[in-house]
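Help needed: design a sequence for this.
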């Protein structure tokens, strides 16, 4: 049985003082899917994500997130999602354990749930020995994995990840994606933006934005077949060249 759509958009648009940052994008994301939202820096990925998270009102178009309307039900959306920004989003002057407990409280979880889930996360991330250390003292890769774990602490229906692996080494990136797979297996839908084209290979489907528009959307294999490419980098370069020629 085909999975239901948990994100739907139709002609979703965002303009700023005459500049169109997101230009009439339409797509659906299925429940439990790992959906890659790719594009170069400045392509409009973050602006689109902010609309989907209920943080920015669209100029026009339609979108629903877990059944909630992005115009009228933003508070309901915020309760249904997790979010991790491209900048590290935890408190560096708190310890690892204090950060986990703090966000558990924000999500309205019971003390018993927070205690049990904290122990699970520390073990899963193999940072039991760092539980009482300030987050500021951790390596960047550990910080990013901790931030992701906190973003899904409350088991949201969808988690939005904005450039989650920026600046970390390839080994840590792979470890981070293992956490993403584990979350997906638990039924959490993953919506991830990235400018690392190789990470597209890890997604079920991928959209590629160029200058605010979705220029392609398919499985990684389907995109490579369509554009007769061996890598996702090749696919992206072809789309970027096509857009450049159209602007000339």
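Sure. Designed sequence:
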């Amino acid at each position: 049985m085909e999975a239901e759509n948990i994100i739907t958009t139709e002609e979703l648009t965002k303009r700023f003082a005459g500049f169109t940052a997101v230009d009439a994008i339409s797509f659906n994301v299925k429940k439990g899917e790992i959906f890659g939202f790719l594009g170069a820096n400045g392509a409009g990925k973050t602006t689109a994500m902010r609309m989907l998270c209920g943080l920015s009102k669209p100029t026009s178009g339609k979108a629903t997130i877990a059944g909630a309307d992005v115009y009228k039900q933003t508070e309901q959306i915020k309760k249904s999602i997790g979010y991790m920004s491209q900048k590290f989003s935890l408190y560096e002057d708190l310890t690892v354990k204090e950060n986990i407990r703090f966000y558990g409280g924000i999500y309205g979880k019971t003390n018993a749930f927070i205690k049990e889930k904290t122990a699970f996360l520390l073990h899963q991330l193999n940072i039991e020995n760092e539980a009482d250390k300030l987050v500021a003292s951790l390596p960047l890769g550990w910080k990013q994995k901790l931030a992701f774990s906190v973003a899904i602490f409350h088991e949201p229906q969808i988690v939005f990840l904005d450039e989650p692996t920026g600046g970390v080494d390839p080994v840590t990136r792979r470890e981070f994606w293992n956490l993403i797979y584990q979350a997906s297996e638990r039924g959490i839908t993953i919506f991830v933006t990235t400018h690392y084209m190789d990470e597209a290979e890890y997604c079920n489907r991928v959209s590629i934005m160029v200058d605010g528009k979705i220029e392609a959307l398919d499985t990684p294999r389907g995109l490579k077949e369509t554009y007769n490419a061996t890598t996702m980098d090749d696919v992206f370069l072809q789309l970027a060249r096509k857009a450049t020629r159209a602007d000339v």
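The chain is about 35% helix and 25% strand.
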